[in-house]
């Protein structure tokens, strides 16, 4: 029996795809990782099927590449790094298993997207913690597992947030339920006892949730995950604070997050704000011309016991804080868009086309962790770096997202280019895959090392490399899960 | 058991003759700790072969390497205040007393993290941080609890975790001397010598550092930790007043805070209110109140207790203590209004004398800085134990508490355990966004046969993976207050919990192939 | 009580290590939180009071013998009692008493500290702890027209103590103390060369017999002298006469006062008037033997009973000496009444004061450790901005002066008597 036949026995016929066209689609994404055709694409529908696939992969030494989100993909982690890989596509596992309005927890299968989850949560009076305008096809579980930063740093207690518990199939094919979900009883029986799979702390003396987060699918595959949710806001006040330079906004961000005032808090440059708000390249260009170079976006959300009072006092305190800041004021419109328009953006996934594709049709992003106070220096360096590789600095969007309650920040540079034009494409590639060494030398921490960043990150993390390999050997001894990613 | 001359000399060369001892008398001061009688049926656990006091990471590394060369087990600790610290699985073992590694290395005020060595206590750091308007959460092991011990190596929760998180979630970096002698600095510390992220590149090695509980030295030595900090609403300095240390208190709840005690008609109402207070995001320190003032001594406590109205005691059991912190008057007004609305919803009341300003000042000091000191836990009867414990939703905690109280009542009624009964230590984590914690505290006399027997029976019952309590989760949260070679919790419960015991032993084996990190409070590479 | 009677306490020591620190309720500064000089200097747990509980228990149970480590830990300790206060802030056990009984047992078993043995030999021969000649004991008072209580009677006996009697550099202070009383018209005398040691330091070293001997002797002598009040400028002596004699059932039938208590009375009466300005910023160091160790002894006989199932209480209720009732306020009030003097407090004060370093036989046997301890205290004094440290005990003064000399600290050292004398406008006739 061929391998694909065995797979069909596991997932059912029709769920193993190997036509040329389909394989071509899965061979690449919009990143710069080399294209490689998979052997086939398999679509499991249950955890048992996933288990079966993984066991089969171990028997046949076949690499597996998990994929939860729909297209387009940008990071390269869903493109096979090895020949003969099988893509495990979770588009059939789209159940929203449970929404718990009492404990503010949702449980989803890996294929559930933000566009699918948010409306259901709203019916229960809840909302997700989201990254900045994720694409509609983005898997909620994948976003959490990738440690994508959320836009509400005051609610970001730990790099894991909002991820809580999960059912994990390790590379050995063994299943484990993490945190509070662990136990011999079924999830349904746990619910009867009032459990909600909300406590993420690991079993005994290891923390399984942390081993699968940021792992690019190399340690385990998730068949469901729970996440923190928050109540829907009944009232939102959005503030846009412009500035010619970023430093005053960094200072203001520190002050806000230090006392956890407000919810959303991030900084974008004119290009990124224009790309978020406008649709077409021309609109973006025109809008950008009217925008201040930097804008801090802050929201105050009314929910819970006294929503209006919450917003009222927070806005008043914020205004007092502004008075003490150097020449900072709020504006209510940006080039014809209101602060409410910005607010609406933040509650939904990105409209089509995905906002990063609007300006030039293509993009490549560079992101890493640092501390907020170092962001200005990195921004300066990136500009110089881009120019040295002849990528126009004016085509770089900047997004500064404080994380983990302000103890660090996700600093992101979005290089926009026309993917049909090889010159800017190559220059973007050059910056993204080679120029970033300069940033690493300055201290940029590539904690999510996609593609070429893995070399940069691990060349500076020798001991981490060694230990991660040891962990990998435990949970995926045959290296069937996404080999070639991270340091494997 | 003595070390060989060569081994001793090698170790002595590393730390210096003043900082190593194998004197038998000195060794017997490293194996007597509370809990020994319960676990080992004797005041003494295994006597170490030597005790060393390294001063630096380099010395620790050299010691660990020497241990590998001479095949000696080692066990590090900072305060050494629990069985997990001093218990040894082998006689051929040394203890690393990290008392000399006591520096606060850095405080990054802007980015809110502090880098500390193992012997830095939570309270010492709190005193230092307050000068900068910062705070680190309190663990329920008294003011002398170690920062690294509580963050990286052990488990422990405190009333400030509603605001300041807990367990391993505040580790932004650590330096770890592995059992093979290599040094790992996690995350941004390794790649750039900055201590703001312990995660990556790739997946986080915090995943093998600890879970609910830590390895208590079983997988190496944590020599530095970068701990996440929080805003402190209170004063830069403070002084408690009073003539007796145990009766000293703040003269009032400090500016920046307000404290309230809300009493509910039923326990369930109190638990529901606790959940909502957590979710409202208003609390700085929140706790389901247990016990009253401990007084100067047991005799004084007994005198006070006899005068207490039983109805008042009942009320205490259904009372929530909430400390609100706020940056501005507006914020405080809002938070207070929220609290009152929640209390009202659950038909709670703010009764005197629990809301007497002096009483609240006393409680707030404890809840900021020193919950769970010896006075409350050990002084009454000699020792205490905690089982069952769990971290879960409030609804699950209600069930567990009911089962615990019912199960313990026979022991309480026959006087084998301190009356009026078990005390639930109960608080929410992170604005309740990751659930709540509860420990069932039982106080007993380990030198009273009936009392000791009662606790042993109870522990056996709650530690039975097929018993009545199995649905409430792994006891001791999988590692706190249990000695694996004696209680076999990981080994017995693992098979019921997706064989997590197997994963743990593999992690141990990968980190420590020679099995030299003492596994008494962790796991061996292979269960004997 | 013998060491066996502290087995209960040893069993109940939880190894919390609070004995190494001052009580958290008293902590005010992150750099000045430690309470136990021994544990701070020598680090191993054996040096802490908790370690002594362990040592005592292991010895009683035959698990260990008198090893070098054992004896080092027992005798490198000032017996200052900081551990006792910290422990009893959270427990109902007696670490200091355990350590005292442990020393007594060591001495009984011939395991006393060799340096102490020399001092005790001197005590036996010459009635003093300074290895000096008894015949020279009265030299400090030469020229002072004071009553000799061997020949005359007076209401008050001024007991200088061994340190003051033989430490020539400190004689002016001893003389000033006496002069203050005489100038105030107090009917005071001294025992002169017949003054004997109180026996307190010997007791701390483990020599119960010496304490008993001197207690009985001094009781007789004071009775014969017809005095009704004993005043001493030495805190060690004060604590011995007031507390230790009572403890061993040899309570004096006379009033026992420290010089500060008497001066305080005289100031209140208006007999002593402090009028001369002393423009100086000082900090007051609480001597252990005037502060926490000077709490009156509490005799208790009864039994342990259980209530509430397993809670340990006593019948009759037992009061523990937890540090509240030492002499803390009187010296401070005196200092505050000196014009121009600015008094700043250190971080570890009153019952949580850091020891000067001299007590428990450490000055005699481990002078380096005594200096180290003193240096830690002077650091603290400097940290609060004091130009001078003021104490009320010659042992403290001696050790601080030695520390300044050896370590070069820029700080002045005074006894409170000196400042009172200065503030009296120098009008003391001697």
List the helices and strands and how they pair.
The complex is a heterotrimer of chains A (488), B (528) and C (430).
Chain A: H1 3-11, E1 16-17, H2 20-25, E2 40-42, H3 47-60, E3 64-67, E4 86-89, E5 96-100, E6 105-108, H4 114-123, E7 126-128, H5 140-145, E8 163-170, E9 175-177, H6 187-192, H7 208-212, E10 220-231, E11 235-243, H8 247-258, E12 265-269, H9 270-277, H10 281-290, E13 294-302, H11 307-324, E14 333-334, E15 337-338, H12 339-347, E16 362-370, H13 375-388, E17 396-403, E18 408-417, H14 422-442, H15 453-459, H16 462-475
Parallel strand pairs in A: 2-4, 3-4
Antiparallel strand pairs in A: 1-2, 5-6, 6-10, 7-10, 8-9, 8-10, 11-13, 12-13, 12-17, 14-15, 16-18, 17-18
Chain B: H1 5-15, E1 20-21, H2 24-27, H3 36-40, E2 50-52, H4 57-70, E3 73-77, H5 83-86, E4 93-97, E5 104-108, E6 113-116, H6 122-130, E7 134-135, H7 147-153, H8 161-164, E8 171-177, E9 183-185, H9 188-192, H10 206-209, E10 221-228, E11 230-231, E12 257-263, H11 267-280, E13 283-288, H12 298-307, H13 310-317, E14 319-325, H14 329-345, H15 357-369, H16 374-377, E15 383-392, H17 394-413, E16 423-428, E17 436-444, H18 449-462, H19 484-487, H20 489-493, H21 500-511
Parallel strand pairs in B: 2-4, 3-4
Antiparallel strand pairs in B: 1-2, 5-6, 6-10, 7-11, 8-9, 8-10, 12-14, 13-14, 15-17, 16-17
Helix pairs in contact in B: 1-4, 11-14
Chain C: H1 7-12, H2 37-42, H3 49-60, H4 68-75, H5 82-88, H6 95-108, H7 114-126, E1 147-148, E2 156-158, H8 162-166, H9 171-183, E3 188-190, H10 200-205, H11 208-225, E4 229-232, H12 235-247, E5 255-258, H13 259-269, E6 280-284, E7 303-307, E8 311-315, H14 329-336, E9 341-344, H15 362-365, H16 367-383, E10 388-391, H17 394-407, E11 412-415, H18 416-423
Parallel strand pairs in C: 1-3, 2-3, 2-4, 4-5, 6-9, 6-10, 10-11
Antiparallel strand pairs in C: 7-8
Helix pairs in contact in C: 3-6, 13-14, 16-17
Features:
heterotrimer, B: 528 residues, alpha+beta, Uridine Diphospho-n-acetylenolpyruvylglucosamine Reductase, domain 2, Uridine Diphospho-n-acetylenolpyruvylglucosamine Reductase, domain 3, Alpha-Beta Plaits, 4 domains, 5-stranded antiparallel β-sheet, 4-stranded mixed β-sheet, 17 strands, globular, C: 430 residues, alpha/beta, Rossmann fold, 5-stranded parallel β-sheet, 4-stranded parallel β-sheet, 18 helices, 43% helix
């Amino acid at each position: 029996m061929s391998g694909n036949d065995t797979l069909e026995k596991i997932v059912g016929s029709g769920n193993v795809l190997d036509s040329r066209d389909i394989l071509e689609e899965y061979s690449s994404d919009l990143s710069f990782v080399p294209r490689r055709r998979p052997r086939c694409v398999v679509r499991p529908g249950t955890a048992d099927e996933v288990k079966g696939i993984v066991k089969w992969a171990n028997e046949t030494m076949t690499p597996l590449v998990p994929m939860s989100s729909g297209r387009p993909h940008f990071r390269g982690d869903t493109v096979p790094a090895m020949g003969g890989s099988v893509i495990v596509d979770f588009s059939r596992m789209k159940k929203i298993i449970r929404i718990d309005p009492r404990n503010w927890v949702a449980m989803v299968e890996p294929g559930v997207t933000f566009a699918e989850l948010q409306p259901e949560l709203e019916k229960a009076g809840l909302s997700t913690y989201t990254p900045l305008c994720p694409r509609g096809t983005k898997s909620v579980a994948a976003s959490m597992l990738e440690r994508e930063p959320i836009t509400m740093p005051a609610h970001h207690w730990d790099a894991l947030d909002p991820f809580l518990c999960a059912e994990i199939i390790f590379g050995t094919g063994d299943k484990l339920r993490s945190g509070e979900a662990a136990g011999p009883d079924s999830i349904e029986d746990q619910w009867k006892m009032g459990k909600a799979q909300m406590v993420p702390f690991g079993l005994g003396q290891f923390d399984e949730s942390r081993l699968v987060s940021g792992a690019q699918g190399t340690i385990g595959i998730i068949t469901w995950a729970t996440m923190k949710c928050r109540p829907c806001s009944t009232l939102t006040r959005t503030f846009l604070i412009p500035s010619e330079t970023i430093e005053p906004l960094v200072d203001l961000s520190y002050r806000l997050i230090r006392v956890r005032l407000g919810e959303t808090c991030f900084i974008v440059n004119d290009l990124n704000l224009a790309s978020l708000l406008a649709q077409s390249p021309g609109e973006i260009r025109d809008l950008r011309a009217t925008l201040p170079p930097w804008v801090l976006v802050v929201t105050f959300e009314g929910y819970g016991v006294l929503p209006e009072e919450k917003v009222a006092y927070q806005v008043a305190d914020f205004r007092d804080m502004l008075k003490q800041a150097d020449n900072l004021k709020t504006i209510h419109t940006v080039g014809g868009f209101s602060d409410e328009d910005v607010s609406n953006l933040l509650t939904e996934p990105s409209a089509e086309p995905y906002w990063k594709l609007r300006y030039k049709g293509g993009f490549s992003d560079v992101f890493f962790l640092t501390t907020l106070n170092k962001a200005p220096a990195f921004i300066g360096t990136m500009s110089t770096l881009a120019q040295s590789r002849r990528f126009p600095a004016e085509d770089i969007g900047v997004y500064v997202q404080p994380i983990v309650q302000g103890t660090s920040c996700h600093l992101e540079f979005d290089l926009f280019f026309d993917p049909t034009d090889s010159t800017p494409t190559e220059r973007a590639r050059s910056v993204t895959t080679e120029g970033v060494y300069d940033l690493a030398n300055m201290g940029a921490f590539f904690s999510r090392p996609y593609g070429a960043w893995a070399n940069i990150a691990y060349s500076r993390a020798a001991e981490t490399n060694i230990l991660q390999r040891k962990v990998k050997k435990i949970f995926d001894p045959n290296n069937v899960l996404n080999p070639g990613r991270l340091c494997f | 058991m003595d070390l060989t001359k060569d081994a001793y000399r090698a170790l002595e060369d590393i730390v210096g003759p003043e900082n190593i001892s194998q004197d038998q008398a000195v060794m017997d001061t490293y194996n007597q700790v509370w809990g020994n009688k319960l676990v080992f049926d004797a005041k003494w656990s295994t006597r170490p072969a030597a005790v060393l006091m390294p001063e630096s990471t380099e010395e620790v590394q050299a010691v660990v390497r020497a241990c590998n060369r001479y095949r000696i087990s080692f066990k590090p600790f900072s305060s050494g205040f629990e069985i997990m610290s001093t218990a040894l699985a082998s006689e051929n073992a040394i203890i690393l007393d990290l008392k000399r590694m006591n520096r606060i290395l850095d405080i990054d005020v802007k980015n809110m993290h502090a880098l500390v060595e193992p012997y830095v206590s939570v309270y010492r750091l709190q005193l230092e941080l307050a000068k900068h308007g910062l705070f680190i959460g309190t663990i329920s092991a008294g003011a002398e609890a170690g920062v690294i011990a509580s963050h990286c190596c052990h488990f422990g929760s405190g009333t400030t975790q509603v605001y300041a998180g807990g367990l391993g979630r505040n580790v932004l970096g650590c330096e770890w001397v592995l059992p093979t002698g290599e040094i790992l600095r996690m995350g941004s510390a390794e790649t750039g010598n900055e201590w703001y992220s312990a995660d990556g590149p790739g997946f986080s090695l915090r995943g093998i550092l600890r879970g609910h509980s830590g390895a208590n030295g079983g997988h190496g030595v944590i020599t530095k930790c970068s701990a996440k900090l929080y805003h402190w609403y209170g004063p830069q300095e403070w002084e408690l007043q009073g003539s007796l240390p145990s009766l000293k208190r703040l003269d009032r709840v400090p500016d920046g805070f307000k404290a309230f005690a809300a009493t509910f008609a039923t326990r369930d109402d109190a638990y529901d209110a606790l959940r909502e207070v957590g979710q409202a995001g208003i609390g700085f320190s929140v706790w389901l109140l247990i016990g009253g003032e401990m007084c100067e001594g047991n005799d004084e406590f007994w005198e006070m207790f006899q005068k207490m109205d039983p109805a008042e005691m009942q009320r205490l059991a259904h009372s929530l203590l909430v400390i609100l912190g706020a940056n501005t008057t507006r914020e405080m007004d809002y938070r207070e209004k929220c609290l009152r609305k929640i209390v009202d919803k659950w038909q709670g009341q703010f009764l005197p004398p629990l809301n007497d300003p002096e009483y609240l000042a006393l409680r707030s000091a404890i809840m900021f800085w020193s919950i769970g000191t010896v006075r409350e836990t050990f002084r009454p009867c000699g020792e205490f134990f905690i089982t069952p414990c769990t971290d879960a939703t409030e609804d699950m905690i209600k069930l567990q508490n009911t089962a615990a109280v019912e199960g313990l009542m026979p022991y309480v009624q026959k006087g084998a355990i301190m009356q009026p009964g078990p005390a639930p230590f109960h608080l929410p984590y992170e604005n309740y966004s990751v659930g709540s914690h509860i420990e069932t505290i039982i106080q007993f006399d380990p030198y009273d046969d009936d009392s000791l027997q009662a606790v042993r029976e109870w522990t056996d019952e709650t530690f039975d993976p097929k018993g009545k309590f199995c649905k409430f989760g792994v006891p001791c949260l999988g590692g706190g207050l249990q000695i694996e070679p004696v209680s076999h919790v990981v080994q017995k419960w693992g098979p019921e919990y997706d064989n997590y015991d197997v994963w743990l032993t593999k992690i141990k084996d990968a980190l420590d192939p020679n099995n030299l990190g003492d596994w008494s409070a962790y796991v061996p590479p292979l269960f004997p | 009580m013998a060491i066996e009677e502290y087995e209960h306490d040893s069993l109940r020591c939880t190894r919390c290590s609070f004995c190494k620190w001052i009580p958290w309720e008293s902590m005010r500064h992150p750099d000045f939180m430690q309470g136990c000089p021994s544990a701070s200097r020598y680090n191993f747990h054996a040096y802490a009071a908790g370690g002594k509980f362990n040592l005592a228990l292991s010895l009683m149970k035959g698990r260990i013998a008198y090893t070098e480590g054992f004896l080092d830990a027992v005798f490198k300790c000032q017996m200052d009692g900081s551990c006792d206060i910290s422990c009893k802030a959270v427990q109902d056990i007696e670490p200091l008493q355990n350590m005292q009984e442990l020393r007594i047992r060591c001495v009984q078993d011939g395991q006393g500290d060799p340096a102490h043995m020399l001092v005790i030999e001197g005590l036996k021969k010459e009635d003093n702890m300074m290895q000096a000649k008894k015949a020279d004991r009265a030299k400090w008072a030469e020229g002072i027209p004071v009553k000799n209580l061997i020949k005359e009677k007076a209401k008050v006996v001024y007991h200088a103590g061994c340190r003051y009697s033989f430490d020539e550099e400190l004689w002016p202070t001893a003389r000033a103390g006496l002069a203050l009383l005489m100038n105030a018209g107090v009917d005071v005398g001294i025992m002169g060369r017949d003054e004997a040691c109180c026996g307190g330091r010997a007791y701390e070293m483990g020599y119960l017999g010496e304490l008993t001997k001197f207690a009985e002797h001094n009781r007789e002598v004071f009775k014969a002298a017809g005095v009704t009040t004993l005043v001493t400028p030495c805190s060690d002596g004060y604590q011995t006469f007031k507390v230790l004699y009572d403890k061993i059932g040899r309570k004096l039938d006379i009033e026992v006062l420290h010089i500060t208590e008497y001066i305080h009375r005289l100031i209140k009466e208006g007999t002593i008037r402090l009028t001369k300005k002393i423009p100086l910023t000082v900090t007051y160091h609480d001597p252990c033997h005037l502060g926490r160790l000077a709490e009156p002894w509490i005799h208790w006989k009864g039994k342990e009973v259980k209530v509430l199932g397993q809670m340990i209480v006593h019948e009759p209720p037992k009061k523990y000496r937890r540090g509240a009732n030492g002499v803390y306020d009187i010296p401070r009030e005196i200092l505050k009444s000196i014009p121009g003097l600015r008094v700043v407090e250190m971080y570890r004060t009153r019952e949580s004061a850091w020891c000067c370093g001299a007590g428990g036989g450490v000055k005699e046997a481990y002078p380096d450790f005594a200096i180290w301890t003193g240096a830690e205290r002077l650091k603290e004094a400097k940290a609060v901005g004091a130009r001078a440290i003021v104490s009320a005990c010659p042992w403290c003064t001696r050790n601080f002066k030695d520390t300044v000399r050896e370590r070069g600290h820029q700080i002045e050292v005074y006894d409170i008597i000196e400042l009172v004398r200065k503030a009296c406008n120098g009008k003391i006739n001697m």
